[in-house]
Write a structure and sequence with these properties.
The protein is α/β, with parallel strands linked by helices. The chain has helices at about 1-5, 25-40, 55-65, 80-85, 90-95, and strands spanning about 10-15, 45-50, 70-75, 100-105.
Amino acid sequence: MVALATPYAALIKVVHVPTKDEVNPKKQFERFKAMVKENVQYPEMVFAMEASKNITSGLLESIDKEIPDVLVMLERGHHHWYDRLFKKDVVRSMEGEILIPLLVFNSKNSRPNPSSKENKRSSVQMVD
């Protein structure tokens, strides 16, 4: 994201909407923020945690308040058959709900290979 935002000095707002079953979401989000700040040097990045009944409505509320130019999401695969069967795909939900551009990264491809020469340069950082 930093590579895309830098030429425009764009603000990157990282929004996390905790799920009902998330254990100690504030503490987890603080650890996540610290990790991102340690690994990503970009001055125009802010973090917010949005409380809502579900992830989709939390993101929609944030979009209504902030009116961003683009929404970037990290698509995580459902690892268990139960999740694939019963949990709603948030990215697909957002596709049908928003009028702004949606950029989606697949989590399987978001982790750079540290041994690759290509990844020794700056890479797009993925945030949740």
